[in-house]
Amino acid sequence: MPVLLYLALTEVIVLVKKPELFLDKTLVFNRFIFLFAFTSIFLLTQRVGHRVKSLVNIMTVYALLALLYKETAILNQLYYPVMDPVLQAWDEWLFGFQPALQFSESRNHPVFSELMFFGYFSYYLLPLVALSFIWIKMPQRLEEFGFVLIGSFLVYYSLFIFFPAVGPQFFWDAPDNVIDARGLFSKIVKTIQLHGEAPTAAFPSSHVGISIIILLWLKRYETKFYLFLVPTTLLLILATVYIKAHYVTDVIGGLISAPVVYLLVRKCYFRLRKLMWS
Question: From CA 230, how far away is CA 234, in angstroms rounded?
C-alpha cells in the first residue's frame, strides 16, 4: 500500500510540473519492475505461510527502494534551485565553520576514519538486522514493522522531492567533497556511493531518520535489542557528517523528523488494518 500511494504521488507531481516526464524511460521502467515484482510474489507465494510471504514481500520492496531513491534525483530538479547554500549557511551560523569539512580534517587517523565508515555502512545493515530479529522473535509484528520501515522511507523520498538538496559530497568541489578510502569499510562505502548514490536526498537525513525510527519501533517492543543497536546508530549519525554525505543541519532535520514520521506511518498502518478488517 505505501508503494502504491507513493507511485501515485510521483505521477501527479510529474503531470503537474512536467508532463513530458510521464513517459520517461527510467520512470516507466521502474514501475514495470515493481509491477513484475508484485505479480511474481503473488504467484510464487500462494502455497507458503503468511510469515514467509510477509518477509519475501518486505525484502523485495526494500531492495527495490533503490530505484525510487534514484528517481528523486530526477523529480527534485522540478523544484530547483537546490537548498545547499541555505544549509551551508545554517551550519556556518551554528558553528562558525563547516563541520562536514572540519570533522574529517581534524580526526583523520586511519582507525577513526575506518570506524566512521563502518558507522555509515551500518545504515544498510540495520533494517536487515531488525527484520531478521523480528522474523525470528516477533513474527506477529513483522507486517507492522515492514509497513513502518517502507512507509518511512517513502515519506523521506517525498520530502527529498520538495526539499532538493544534494549534500557536501555533490555540492562541494574536489578535494573538499571527498575523503580517501584507507580501509575495508571505507572502500565498501565508496563502491556503494559510486554505484548507488545520486545527487539528492540530503535534507532531512534519511540515514538518521530511518535509523532513529527503527530504534523507536524496537524500543516499544524489545528494549534489550534496541539498546544493542544504539551505539551503532550513534556512529552512523556522526559518520553522515564525517564522510560529507550530510550537513549537520541535515542531521538535525533527521532527528526532528524521525518521531513525526514514525508516529504518522504507524498510525496509518493501524488505520488501514482496521479498515481492511472492518
Answer: 6
pLDDT digits (tens, 9 = 90+) for 145-193: 999 999 999 999 999 999 999 999 999 998 888 888 888 999 999 898 8
Backbone angles phi, psi at 17, to 5 degrees: -90, -40
Q: Are 254 and 212 in contact (CB under 8 A)?
A: yes
Domain with 163, as residue range(s), is: 82-277
Using CA atoms, how far apart are residues 191 and 201, in angstroms rounded to an integer?
18
CATH number where 109 lies? 1.20.144
Q: Which residues of 230-251 are buried (b: 16+ CB within 10 A; e: fewer)?
A: eebbebbbbbbbbbbbbbbbbb
Q: How many domains does the chain have?
A: 1
Strands (E), 140-217: none
Confidence (pTM): 0.94
CA gap 106, 163 in Å, rounded: 30
Residue 278 DSSP one-character state: -
